[in-house]
Amino acid sequence: MKKEYDFSKAKKNPYAKLFKRQVTMRLDDEVIKYFKSLAEETGIPYQNLINLYLKECAHNQKKLKWAS
After folding, report:
1. Which long-range contacts (CB under 8 A, 24 or more apart) does 15-24 make?
2. Do residues 16 and 27 make contact, with C-beta atoms less than 8 angstroms apart?
3. Domain boundaries, the chain
4. What is the chain written as a DSSP string?
5. What pLDDT digit, counting tens, does each position of 2-58 carry?
């Protein structure tokens, strides 16, 4: 392994926009507990489970139903 590397000719990753973005969300304790318990059952990190669930909702264009 080299002590130093030359990145002066490095190019930005053209696929970087396709990667996940870090965001801050405020979630209820019961939501976190649910996904953490599901994570223990499945062996999938709970953040990934939340992302998969939200991705499925977006894909199916699921709308929130609530009574006002």
Report:
1. 20/51
2. no
3. 27-59
4. --S----TT----TTGGGS---------HHHHHHHHHHHHHH-S-HHHHHHHHHHHHHHTT-------
5. 899 999 999 988 888 788 888 999 999 999 999 999 999 999 999 999 999 999 999
